[in-house]
Write a structure and sequence with these properties.
236 residues; alpha+beta; Translation Initiation Factor IF3; Alpha-Beta Plaits; 6-stranded antiparallel beta sheet; 4-stranded antiparallel beta sheet; 5 helices; 38% helix
């Protein structure tokens, strides 16, 4: 090899060496970035429902349509006055249109064909309110008007009153923060056991908020739950 070509050969060799070094460093850095741990973070809250819904059905039967209408109007008024005395407004108590069934007009008779009363009229009432204390009073006092001859039943036999929690957005940020903190604590425990440290978050899946009854018999108290899945970088 001539001395004239020597510098070019040296430069080429150095370029190859440096290229291999940088490629190696890039690979090492990439492998470090691949070191992650995926953990789940839990957050729970016990909250009280803020809305109660009570669907009711008033039933009246008879053989004379005119008398049936008068009875239905009178009993509807009794039920309206009952809730009005407990300070429920017209916006809270919604009354549906009455429906009337003629038992003799049924094609194949049906289970009511031999009923003593020919006509059965029904009216739906739906009470939706934020006054949970008043709702409790109404449930306690409803037998007083049943004693006046009103046939009233809840449309939900298993749970007459449904309680809802609608303020999830008020507690959502705090619960996400708590779930993230809980996940980091789990990741740090994993990292300590492996002689490493927890770095930044690589990815996060917020998860789905769930709201369930703490007490299935009442439903007033709710449990709000979120499980987040978070992936952290692991560092030496």
């Amino acid at each position: 090899m001539s001395q004239q070509n020597l510098p070019s050969s040296i430069i080429l060799s150095l370029a190859i060496i440096l290229s291999g070094y940088f490629i190696g460093q890039t690979y090492v850095a990439g492998k470090k970035l691949d070191r992650t741990v995926s953990v789940k973070g839990l957050a729970e809250r016990e909250v009280q429902a803020d809305i109660a819904t009570w669907p009711l059905e008033l039933t009246v039967s008879g053989n004379d349509l005119a008398q049936l209408q008068r009875t239905l109007e009178r009993q509807t008024k009794i039920l309206q006055d009952f809730f009005s005395e407990l300070e429920f407004t017209d916006d809270e108590l919604r009354i549906g249109a009455p429906t009337i069934q003629d038992n003799r007009a049924l094609l194949y008779g049906g289970q009511n064909a031999n009923n003593q009363d020919r006509y059965i009229a029904k009216v739906d009432f739906n009470l939706r309110t934020t006054k949970l204390d008043k709702m409790s009073q109404a449930m306690f006092k409803i037998p007083t008007i049943i004693g006046q001859g009103l046939v009233i039943g809840s449309k939900n036999t298993w749970q007459p009153v449904q309680y809802l929690y609608t303020k999830l957005n008020d507690i959502k940020p705090e619960m996400i923060e708590e779930a993230t903190k809980n996940a980091r604590e789990a990741a740090e425990k994993f990292a300590r056991d492996s002689g490493s440290n927890v770095g930044k978050i690589k990815s996060a899946n917020q998860g789905i908020f769930s709201i369930s009854d703490i007490d299935p018999n009442s439903g007033v108290m709710k449990k709000v739950r979120i499980v987040s899945t978070i992936q952290f970088y692991i560092e030496d």
